[in-house]
């Protein structure tokens, strides 16, 4: 899915294209401001959002990324906001963004007041610095509302869609549009912290084992935002340009829910920490398997190293010395032997991959993960390690940057 609206983090403005978010090998600076770069003439000419914010980035760069994303939403969908204000049909993209859940009922009065004040602040920036809603073909470049009003009052009605002043009807409509802008901003400021996603890249170090993902921007992805959270997700996300690819992390049955992870995984955070963090940011109490299971799934540091193999027919535990199931009588000796063989090969691949980042034999990891789903009691250490390795294999096919040190 491509981000419908996005932002590049200020620290990446000089290295990543403002439009497609790819690394700029030969940066093309914006001709009107010294702040951002593009990777091509096509990206420079296509990015109409930056053309509107150009010249005001020093004032905007201090905004948190989700606030800045809300601000850019207004710039990109300004025509939809006009239609929204006039109670007319809007684009499908804008309607999708407006349908994102805001969790308004779960927010405290203090939280809502804070976000409403921020929406007023951002709308005043739009009102006082940018003639965002002037669609006058002759004077759309005017960034001074007072001057735009003077000029627009001299042209015929056919030359201007929204008068920036100069007549009572124009002023009233403009005021209505700015009121609608405040409403849209408030919805975005409530929904984006719970629904927008980071855009990241793998930063590859000389010693590959220390390579890690780093954020380069943020985006609104209406489809991805539909996915609920699990501390044991069955999908994983990777960024490609300003888009996101969703891949299955384990077998998903027909009709089974796709479950994403919101940043708090059972392998890295204990149950109380996960629930506290998710409640604080996403305003829900997690009740997924690892959080509600009486076994209290351990973190990676505490997870067992041994593998408990189960009968694939009745799910009863098996003993290596006695591979015949004591419950249903099924003989699982071949399955046990295969598990042992593939586990050894998977361990060897992990050690090789960590040192040279060569993913060419990664199929053995997929085979082992599939066997674990059928025969093993989860979680255990090698299973977790294989999941993390396969994520890194996919990372190498996504946004990545090789660091000098």
Report on the architecture of this protein.
There is one protein chain. Helix content is 41%, strand content 11%. By secondary structure, the protein is of the alpha/beta class. The protein has a four-stranded mixed β-sheet. Helix 5 crosses helix 9 (168-195), helix 7 (109-129) crosses helix 9 and helix 13 runs antiparallel to helix 14. The longest helix is centred in the middle third of the chain and has 28 residues, at 168-195. The chain is globular and about 85 Å long. The model is unreliable at 135-169 (pLDDT under 50).
Write a compact overview of the structure shown:
The chain is α/β, with parallel strands linked by helices and 405 residues long. It has helices spanning 41-46, 48-53, 57-60, 65-76, 78-85, 92-98, 109-129, 145-152, 168-195, 271-282, 289-292, 333-356, 363-375, 381-395; strands at 5-8, 28-29, 37-38, 197-204, 212-220, 228-229, 235-240, 243-248, 259-260, 400-402. The radius of gyration is 26 Å and the shape is globular.
């Amino acid at each position: 899915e491509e981000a419908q609206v996005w932002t590049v983090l200020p620290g990446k403005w000089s290295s990543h294209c403002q439009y497609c978010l790819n690394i700029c090998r030969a940066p093309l600076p914006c001709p009107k401001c010294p702040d951002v770069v593009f990777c091509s003439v096509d990206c420079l000419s296509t990015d109409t959002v930056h053309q509107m914010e150009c010249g005001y980035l020093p004032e905007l760069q201090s905004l948190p990324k989700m606030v800045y994303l809300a601000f850019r939403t207004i710039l990109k969908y300004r025509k939809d906001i006009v239609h929204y204000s006039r109670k007319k049909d809007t684009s499908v993209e804008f309607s999708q963004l407006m349908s994102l859940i805001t969790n308004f009922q779960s927010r405290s009065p203090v939280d809502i007041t804070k976000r409403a004040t921020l929406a007023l602040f951002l709308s005043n920036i739009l009102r006082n610095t940018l003639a965002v809603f002037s669609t006058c073909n002759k004077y759309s470049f005017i960034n001074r509302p007072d001057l735009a009003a003077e000029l627009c009052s001299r042209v015929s009605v056919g030359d201007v869609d929204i008068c920036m002043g100069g007549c009572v009807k124009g002023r009233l409509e403009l005021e209505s549009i700015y009121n609608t802008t405040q409403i849209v901003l408030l919805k975005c400021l409530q929904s984006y912290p719970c629904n927008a996603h980071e855009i990241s890249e793998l930063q590859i170090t000389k010693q590959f084992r220390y390579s890690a993902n780093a954020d380069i921007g943020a985006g609104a992805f209406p489809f991805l935002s539909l996915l609920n959270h699990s501390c044991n997700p069955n999908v994983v996300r990777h960024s490609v340009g300003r888009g996101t690819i969703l891949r299955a992390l384990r077998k998903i049955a027909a009709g089974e829910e796709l479950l994403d992870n919101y940043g708090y995984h059972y392998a890295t955070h204990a149950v109380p920490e996960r629930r506290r963090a998710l409640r604080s940011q996403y305003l829900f109490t997690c009740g997924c398997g690892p959080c509600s299971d009486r076994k209290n799934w351990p973190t990676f540091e505490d997870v067992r190293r041994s593998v408990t193999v189960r009968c694939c027919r009745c799910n009863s535990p098996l003993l290596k010395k006695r591979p015949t199931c004591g419950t249903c009588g099924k003989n699982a000796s071949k399955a046990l032997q295969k598990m042992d063989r593939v586990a050894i090969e998977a361990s060897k691949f992990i050690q090789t991959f960590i040192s040279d980042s060569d993913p060419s034999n990664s199929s053995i990891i997929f085979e082992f993960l599939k066997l674990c789903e059928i025969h093993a009691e989860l979680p255990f250490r090698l299973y977790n390690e294989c999941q993390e390795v396969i994520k890194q294999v996919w990372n190498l096919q996504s946004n990545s940057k090789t660091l000098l040190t």
